[in-house]
Amino acid sequence: MKKFLQQLAKVSEEQTLPRFRSSLSVDNKLAGAGSPSFDPVTEADREAERAIRAAISERFPGDRILGEEFGTTNPDAPDGWIIDPVDGTRAFISGVPLWGTLVGRHEGDAMVAGLMHQPFTGETYVATAEGAWLIHNGLEHALATSSVERLDEAKLLTTSPRIFGEGTQEPYDRLEAACRLPRYGCDCYAYALLASGHVDLVAEAGLQTYDIAPLIPIIERAGGVVRTWDGQSAKDGGNVLAAANKALFERAAERLAG
Length: 258
Prior knowledge:
- The chain is α+β, with helices and mostly antiparallel strands.
- It is built from 8 helices and 15 strands.
- It is 30% helix and 31% strand.
């Protein structure tokens, strides 16, 4: 499984990296109907998902595949894959190398393997039942989260403070105020930094399953905890909290709950 995840990283990279920092047309998935919102998608998103789907279908032809751009195939299959070909498309179209390709494998409801690949920096984060690793410059490093257990010592990441709204802004503000250092703008890269031990908390709101499910095995195999704000499974998205360890998760969840 580990080698296959690396293969998926390669086939997606062939579609994303040549298009990064290039003249690329951007479509708005929310355009029309008077919508002022902006949900960008590019040729890189679509072609990377097509390539990943093709590779999975060749190896696992009966598996369910859910992708951000092309929906679900084999919807009744119990086991399958969840794909976000470019998580952080806003970063991608801005030339910021904090996006990544996400692929997760589930067996039933359990996420059992995950990939986060950032081809511009050459970083591949993978997790299987055997563990979690960063593969970079031809070397493998076992991932391990930090030992920070206190909020006033914690570094907190979120994609943007603007992702929070009614019902989530005040809880997030309470959590941020309790932490040592907040930073913004990392999308999926934030969770990779948490799994690597560089930051201690990630809090986000309104995620879709493809935004978070592939990252769950990477975080958990590295020693971290990722759940919804109220402690439920994060596989289906929602308001998500990831922490370096159980003690820090519980303190952050208490702060979110008020």
